[in-house]
Design brief:
By secondary structure, this protein is α/β, with parallel strands linked by helices. The chain contains 29 helices and 15 strands. The strands form 5 sheets. The protein has a 6-stranded mixed sheet with strand order 4-5-3-6-7-8, with helices on both faces. It comes from Cuculus canorus (Common cuckoo).
């Protein structure tokens, strides 16, 4: 990758994704809304100077500011536009030829007292070809005129953004008789002259006239849809206007999904400290490794010179010290985080926009699901939702979610609704798994809580530091963390009701149900009381964790979207364990879960329920309305799947080891995709190998999966060190962690103050 300014790529190269979506080479283009355009261009003066093609671009540009503008008035005259609310002034100046009149107008901005426009967009040639019947003399005069104008434009480029729009090709078959002399051969000659002459005197200067050549590429694909063969169709003009907006506004507005023309963000104080920490860890690990290697060499067998016999001293393999394991883990993590930073913060690798097609989503889904079937093995145990089965469930769901994200399938509502069920199913497993553990084991110790919290949050906290992102940005981890704490508090508060206690007296079961009813009541209240919810999470330091863009609305929305499914998971676990204790279900290998008749009825009901939900989700027309119903109905498809997967004994006795392998690293896959598989914080796609989309996906996916697996190993190793079983040691570690977070909050406050 030769590097360079992404603005150059935006102005000169790209391709169409589908019919109307333009993809610049190497970077992502943001789609500006009216409010964003006004914020960017406030108090700005923009001038479009040229012929009817420039007039078209002028109208498309001002429609980004005010969509109600109509194309009316004198076509062969100046057209003013002003947005008084934002003090934006945009003028079109009718100069259809590059001649003395145009030169005089441009000269007035360079020499007179008149205020210079902030943006100048100029271009003309077709009128010269038409008026002079395509003569060579007209081309010679064009070269002379543009040579006289070029120094003035270059002078303006020192204080303003100046763009010269090259001439688009024409569709000669549609041209009227009066325009037949305008040929693509003539247009290419005029464009070549403009490119050669502009910036000829300032090749080494940073202030240059920006040549807007990308319009030619767009026109080559769309000019055949032109009404007259000369002027571009509206969609192409709109694309050109959006490119202009991205070139100027991206460096001002800094949209996440607009990587074109954005400078690399400066390192924050916390990022610099993290860099120093990882560097010291790598140096420390290398020093320890060298010391061990030297010790090993000293103890190697050597020859006794007197007897000529080889001495073979007993060499005991030294145990790896805690410090060495710690440094080794941080060494690997430091290298991995460097890759994260290079992928999604440095302007080293390319990023491209997503583009959804049905084939880009469904073909990989079918391929992956078929592949998973080929890795079928027998389970070690045949209980409902056994470990292999839940890993398999997490695995295939995670793969489907990954394909959903990279294909941009969120724009297709039926797919979006089904993916919402998969996210809900993760939370259902959270409720089921943690409830089952606390209910059966009765272990409410600090060690268990710290282990779970560390494994859930370690990677996200590191990414918050390295990638300079708020904790709530990785919304799924805060969601799972909060629900884990809710489950823990519900079961741990007095009276602690566990299975062993309940077996002695059945009334305890009613006590637990009462606890669950209280939990459901609290959930219901908070879901319909946004004010109360926001007050709880707006207290410092909770606000520091759950705020996104200055408020906790996003957190409330995410929590509310799947508010009942964790409760459903807890309730299902309670009912299942009660039935298991009463021996009302059979979990032998190959045996159906219930009697044949009951099993068949439940299977039919489950299949019907599963398909009914899919039909409802596929018929969704409004995302907001469907999201309102989702929390209450998502459990239908989840329970239907659980019953279909577990009622038949032969289905319950096998699992896909392929999916289960991915399931074991599902959390790492979900988080890592943000920066090293997708790009621009999931808004785009990372491009390691430009020009070969399929090969790029294969390479980036391989690296992504390997990194996720390695991070999972690092997290497990560090969990054993940071969260020891000994209570006194654990207390010391917790004090150190508290000190670390206090320092992090302090540095964060200093950092925020310096930004403001």
């Amino acid at each position: 990758f030769k590097g360079g300014d992404t603005c150059d790529y935006l102005l000169s190269s790209g391709r169409f994704l589908g019919e109307k979506v333009w993809q610049p080479h190497s970077c992502m283009m943001h789609k500006y809304k009216n409010s964003e355009a006004k914020s960017c261009l406030v108090d700005k003066h923009i001038v479009f100077i040229g012929d009817s093609r420039i007039r078209q671009l002028f109208y498309s540009f001002i429609k980004l500011i005010n969509p109600q503008v109509r194309e009316e008035g004198n076509k062969h005259g100046n057209i003013p536009f002003e947005d008084k609310s934002a003090s934006i002034k945009v003028d079109f100046l009718w100069y259809p030829e590059v001649n003395g009149s145009m030169r005089q107008r441009i000269k007035s901005w360079t020499e007179g007292s008149m205020a210079k426009p902030h943006i100048i967009v100029a271009g003309a040639a077709t009128w010269s070809i038409k008026i002079h019947n395509g003569s060579n003399e007209a081309l010679t005069q064009y070269k002379i005129n543009i040579t006289s104008i070029a120094p003035l434009l270059e002078k303006l480029a020192k204080s303003s953004d100046v763009y010269w729009v090259l001439q688009d090709p024409v569709y000669e078959d549609l041209l009227s008789e009066s325009r037949k002399m305008i040929t693509n051969e003539k247009i290419d000659a005029y464009n070549e002259a403009a490119v050669r002459i502009l910036n000829s005197s300032s090749r080494n200067s940073k202030a240059k006239v920006k040549v807007f050549s990308v319009s030619k590429l767009i026109a080559q694909e769309t000019i055949m849809k032109s009404a007259d063969g000369l002027h571009l169709p509206e969609s192409s003009r709109d694309t050109n206007a959006m490119i202009l907006m991205n070139v100027y506004c991206n460096k001002i507005m800094k949209p996440i999904d607009g990587s074109c023309c954005q400078p690399q963000p400066p390192l924050t104080l916390i990022q610099k400290l993290a860099f120093c920490f990882f560097t010291l860890s790598i140096i420390g690990y290398l020093i320890i490794s060298l010391i061990h290697r030297n010790n090993y060499r000293k103890n190697k067998s050597c020859t006794d010179l007197e007897s000529g016999e080889e001495k073979k001293p007993v060499i005991s393999t030294p145990n790896i010290s805690t410090l060495e394991m710690l440094l080794h883990s941080f060494c690997k993590l430091g290298l991995i985080m460097t890759y994260f930073y290079l992928c999604d913060r440095a302007n080293l690798f390319m990023k491209e926009n997503k583009f959804y097609t049905h084939s880009s989503f469904f073909i990989p889904i079918i391929y992956v699901l078929v592949l998973g079937v080929f890795f079928t093995e027998n389970t070690k145990e045949t209980k409902v939702l056994n470990r292999e089965q839940t890993d398999e469930w997490k695995g295939w769901m995670q793969l489907v979610i990954l394909i959903y994200h990279i294909s941009g399938a969120s724009t297709f509502l039926p797919v979006y609704m089904h993916i919402r069920v998969l996210v809900a199913a993760y939370l259902f497993q959270t409720g089921y798994g943690h409830f089952s553990y606390f209910w059966v084991k009765g272990d409410f110790g600090v060690y268990r809580v710290c282990q779970v919290l560390f494994r859930l949050n370690f990677l996200v906290i590191v990414l918050c530091i390295v990638m300079d992102r708020p904790y709530q940005f990785y919304y799924f981890v805060p969601l799972v963390t909060v629900w884990f704490m809710i489950i823990y508090c519900t079961l741990a508060v007095w009276p602690q009701i566990v299975q062993k206690k309940a077996n002695g007296n059945c009334l305890w079961h009613f006590g637990l149900l009462l606890k669950l009813i209280c939990l459901l009541t609290c959930i219901y209240f908070l879901s319909y009381s946004q004010g109360a919810f926001e007050k709880i999470f707006s207290f410092w330091p909770l606000s520091k964790c759950f705020e996104l863009n200055g408020n906790v609305y996003e957190w409330w929305f995410r929590w509310k979207l799947d508010r009942y499914v964790v409760f459903h998971g807890m309730l299902f676990a309670f009912i299942y364990l009660a039935l298991q204790k009463c021996q009302m279900i059979t979990e032998g290998k190959g045996d159906p879960l219930f009697s044949s008749r009951v099993s068949n009825i439940l299977l039919v009901v489950s299949v019907v329920a599963f398909l009914t939900y899919s039909i409802w989700a596929s018929s969704c027309k409004n995302k907001t309305e469907c999201n309102e119903l989702h929390p209450s109905v998502s459990v239908v498809q989840i329970l239907a799947f659980v019953l279909i997967r577990n009622i038949p004994g032969y289905v319950r006795s096998v699992y896909s080891s392929f999916f289960a392998w991915f399931g074991k690293i599902s959390l790492e896959l979900f988080i890592c995709q943000y920066h090293i598989w997708l790009a621009a914080d999931t808004k785009g796609i990372l491009v390691l190998i430009p020009g070969y989309p399929m090969f790029n996906i294969l390479v980036s996916t391989f690296i992504f999966v390997c990194v996720a697996h390695e991070i999972s190993q690092i997290t497990n190793d560090l969990a054993q060190i940071v969260v020891p079983k000994d209570n006194s040691t654990l207390l010391k570690r917790l004090l150190c962690i508290a000190g670390f977070f206090s320092g992090l909050l302090l540095f964060s406050a200093v950092q925020d103050q310096s930004r403001h």
